[in-house]
């Protein structure tokens, strides 16, 4: 049986379950993850009601087809990022209802268009180039990606297991830095089902993206103390705590159950 798992902030899951709740943008105060130290000034953010959907490159066209199949023409303003050209400005992106982009776009944006760290902001022109800004690794620093200067209402990562693990990739760093009220991870394989310890580390990576408190803190101390260590020592509190957490943030559906609940096209 193929199962689709959707993980999200607990407050969003409560809202989807019919409980009235108020969604609040999560803040990450921990300074262990360099990606989360890079920020865009609030005055540079374009407020938006749009959902940003991040998918594997080969699935961009499929998402385009699904939107066309389930939404009547002109009922939804959508932008499909299906080229390698520069993205529209943040204010243009903010005007859409849905923006679909790819893993490779996010990875490249982090490499060339990420916000500068505090060190990079303070450092002099140490590379001998006038009027050229560079990151500490020597890469020329471009204008910050418009994806990072929109305050999205929701970020959804399809095949979101790509964000798992504790070795950050450019995709993971970029996804973690996006500004959003709500965050979703959609996947059929939330963990690689290898060693128990590896699966636990993988799960923690997803929680960092979701900005779950306290278990999604980048340093992993709360996660390790409350769940990982007890779990690996076969203490009952470990599995109990993990199950309690997953009940608050996860929905599970089979393919058939999703077919049964698909609504009529939006008109």
TrEMBL record:
Which domain of life does the UniProt lineage start with? Eukaryota
Name listed for the protein in its UniProt record: Helicase ATP-binding domain-containing protein
Which species does this protein come from? Phytophthora nicotianae
Which Pfam family name is an example for this entry? Answer: SNF2-rel_dom
- What sequence ranges are listed for the domain Helicase ATP-binding? 41-208
Q: Which GO terms describe its molecular function?
A: ATP binding; ATP-dependent activity, acting on DNA; hydrolase activity
Q: What start and end residues bound the annotated signal peptide? A: none
Q: Which UniProt keywords apply?
A: ATP-binding, Hydrolase, Nucleotide-binding
One cellular component (GO) term of this entry: nucleus
The record ties this protein, via SUPFAM superfamilies, to:
P-loop containing nucleoside triphosphate hydrolases (SSF52540)
Which GO annotations describe the biological process of this protein?
A: DNA repair
């Amino acid at each position: 049986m193929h199962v689709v798992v959707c993980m999200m902030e607990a407050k969003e899951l409560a809202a989807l379950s019919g409980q009235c709740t108020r969604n609040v943008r999560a803040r990450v105060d921990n300074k262990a993850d360099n990606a989360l130290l890079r920020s865009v000034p609030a005055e540079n953010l374009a407020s938006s009601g749009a959902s940003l959907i991040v998918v594997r490159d080969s699935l961009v066209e499929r998402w385009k087809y699904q939107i066309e199949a389930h939404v009547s023409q002109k009922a939804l303003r959508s932008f499909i990022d299906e080229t390698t050209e520069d993205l529209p400005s943040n204010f243009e992106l903010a005007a859409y209802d849905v923006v679909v982009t790819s893993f490779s776009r996010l990875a490249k944006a982090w490499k060339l268009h990420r916000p500068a760290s505090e060190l990079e902001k303070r450092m002099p022109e140490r590379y001998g180039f006038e009027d050229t800004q560079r990151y500490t690794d020597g890469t020329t620093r471009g204008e910050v990606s418009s994806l990072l200067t929109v305050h999205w209402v929701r970020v959804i990562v399809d095949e979101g297991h790509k964000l798992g693990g504790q070795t950050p990739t450019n995709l993971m760093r970029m996804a973690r830095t996006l500004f959003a009220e709500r965050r979703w991870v959609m996947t059929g394989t939330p963990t690689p089902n290898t060693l128990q310890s590896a699966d636990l580390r993988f799960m923690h990576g997803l929680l960092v993206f979701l900005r779950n408190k306290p278990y999604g803190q980048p340093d992993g101390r709360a996660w390790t103390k409350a769940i990982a260590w007890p779990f690996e020592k076969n203490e009952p509190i470990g599995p109990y705590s993990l199950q309690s957490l997953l009940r608050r943030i996860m929905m599970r559906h089979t393919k058939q159950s999703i077919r049964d609940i698909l609504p009529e096209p939006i008109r």
